[in-house]
Structures are given as structure tokens and as C-alpha cells.
Amino acid sequence: MDILILGGTALLGRAIAEAALRSGHTVTCAARGTAPAPEGTSFVTVDRDDDDGLSPVADRIWDAVVDVSRHPGQVRRAVRDLRTRHWAFISSLNVYAAFDRREQSEDSPVLAPLSGDVMEDMSAYGAAKVACEDIVRAADAPATIIRSGLISGPGDTSGRSGYYPWRFAHPTGADVLVPDDPTFPCALIHVDDLAEWTVHAATHRLDGTFNATGPTVALGDVLTTAARVAHSDVAARPVPAAVLAAQGISAWMGSPSLPLWIDDPEWRFFATADSSAAIRAGLRTRPLEDTLADALAFENLRTGPRPAGLSDDEERALRAALAAS
Ligand SMILES: NC(=O)c1ccc[n+]([C@@H]2O[C@H](COP(=O)([O-])OP(=O)(O)OC[C@H]3O[C@@H](n4cnc5c(N)ncnc54)[C@H](OP(=O)(O)O)[C@@H]3O)[C@@H](O)[C@H]2O)c1
């Protein structure tokens, strides 16, 4: 197949390009060129913020176009200007209107679509993805809409999925400080598993909307697995949510934070979803241990400040605050 990836130079788009190459497809990546495209692909410079920005890739009929955008205007222009036999659009679980129930399926209510063309900030992320989904669904070719869960493995620049394996591998004391919520539901999908399935979906022209997450697993099991891949016998030490809040430590992401967990009952099932339709349609996910080992390898290469979790000084300060309380 002749596949166009709108993007192809960041975490998932790059992995999709590489997966498509491995399957013998011809791959073109189209982006502004902030980072290089994978070797073996053709790269075309485009700026999707320009109204005719996609004209360099609008001169032929593609077998599949993969889009990772968050901006409805970019997606609208792609659907208007490109000719393809199939669309694959990378969406997110953030489209759902509520996260107060376990393992929701694709027919659960979603947010109202963003009305503008541009997602101004991350507070509009879910609504923007809903609008993008609607635009792609209305295109005159079959479309796979892929609602991804948290992506892990090599290239996770957010640092969320690699924090705990990295912290167990590089402890600052006698224990690793973790959220006091071992049953919190987590799911991590390895970027290469999601990429392989995206190429599979395009190849088979799967027409529909699919959750795509890793298997649901409790946070306590993620932490145990993180310690195992780090070959660490340091204990996990749960820290009550009230202590974390008092110390200004966020949940889920960012710095300082304790990631992969949310202290809000309305968001308890945010990270997980029913991905059985995707599994029936060919999604295969590797064991969590392998995913976290790859995330750790990536974290070990990181230079500069970590984008998620606690720095050494922050973890020591939290331990001191626990001792003082
Ligand atoms: N990370 C997660 O855990 C997670 C979870 C759920 C869903 N998702 C979804 O998964 C996808 C991740 O995709 P990703 O990692 O490949 O993408 P990404 O980090 O969103 O990168 C965007 C890509 O689009 C290109 N781009 C950005 N602005 C552009 C413009 N104006 N014109 C042309 N190209 C432009 C970028 O290259 P240039 O900068 O060079 O232009 C880059 O290749 C996203 O759809 C995200 O919403 C992620």
C-alpha cells in the first residue's frame, strides 16, 4: 500500500511509519520537519495550519491516510483536499463524557464536539478529538477511528509510563514513594502494538470506532512489575492523597507528580476502556513487563529534567515531610 502519515515524526506517527515499512508498505510522512521522519520513508514538508498546506500531498490517490491531529481545522482540510481509499484517525479515550464506570465501550456518550477549528489548550482536547472524529467519519472513504489509551514504550516523552520503572531503578532512599491506591485501574499500550494494529486496520480497511488500550491492570500490579523490570528490591511506600496534595504533588502527569493515578472518583476509570472490539479485529498487546522494560530503557536515555514524577530532591523532600508528620 501507498500510505500517507500526516505527522510521522513523533511518538506514535513515527512508530506507525516504521510498522508500515516493516510490513512492506511505501510510506510518506508529511509534517513541518521539527524532527526527522524514519529512515526508509519519504518526507514531504507541509504546514497544516495553512489553508492549502496539504497541496504537496494532494496530487495522487493514497491507499490509506493516517492522521494524528488534535485540530478540527487541520482534519477538515485533510478530508477536503486529500484523496484516499481509507482513513485511520488516532483519537483518544478523552472523547468520553464521563469516567465513572469501568471498561466503557465505544457507544458510551462522548463530549460535545469543539466548534472552532483550533484546539487552543489541553482543556479542549477531548472535545477537539470528538470534532475530528466526526469529520473523518463523514469522509467518503471507510475510516478506522482509534481511541487510544495511555501510550507507553520507547518515545514516551511525557515520562508518565516510564517513571515508576525508572524510579525503582534509581531510588533516592530505602523506598519508592507511590500513590496509596493499589486498586486504581491502569492500562498501558506499547506504542509498537498500537502502531502495528493501526497498519493492520488500514490494510483491512476496518470501518468503525475502536477503543485501543492495553489490558486493564491495578496500579499495585504496575508498581510490582515496574520494580521487577528495574531488578529492584526496594519497597513501594504508599503516600496518602492528602499528603501529596499538601505538598503540591499532582496526580496523573507533569512535574512534580505521581503519575498513572487520579485522586478523583469521577475520573477513576479514565485510563481504561473496553478494547474487546479491537482485540476481535486483530489488536495484540504484549505483556506489561515488556512494555515497562522498554519504557525504562527509554527513560534511562533521557537527559535533562524529567517531565513527570518526582525529581530526586522532590522525593527526598516528600520523605522528609512524611517523617515530620
Ligand atoms: N501519548 C499518549 O499517551 C496518547 C494517549 C491517547 C491518544 N494519543 C494520541 O496519539 C497521537 C500521538 O501521535 P504522535 O505521537 O505521532 O503525535 P504528536 O506528538 O501529536 O505529534 C504531531 C505530529 O504532527 C506534526 N505536526 C504538528 N503540527 C503540524 C502542522 N501544523 N503541520 C504539519 N504537521 C504538523 C508533528 O511534526 P512537526 O512538528 O514537524 O510538524 C508531528 O509529527 C495523538 O493523536 C494523540 O492525541 C496519545
Automatic annotation (TrEMBL):
Transmembrane regions listed in the UniProt entry: none
Originating species: Microbacterium memoriense
Domain NAD-dependent epimerase/dehydratase: 3-68, 77-205
InterPro entries: Epimerase_deHydtase (IPR001509), NAD(P)-bd_dom_sf (IPR036291), NAD(P)-dependent_oxidoreduct (IPR051783)
Pfam families listed in its UniProt record: Epimerase
Name assigned to this protein: NAD-dependent epimerase/dehydratase family protein
Top-level taxon in the UniProt lineage: Bacteria
SUPFAM superfamilies listed in its UniProt record: NAD(P)-binding Rossmann-fold domains
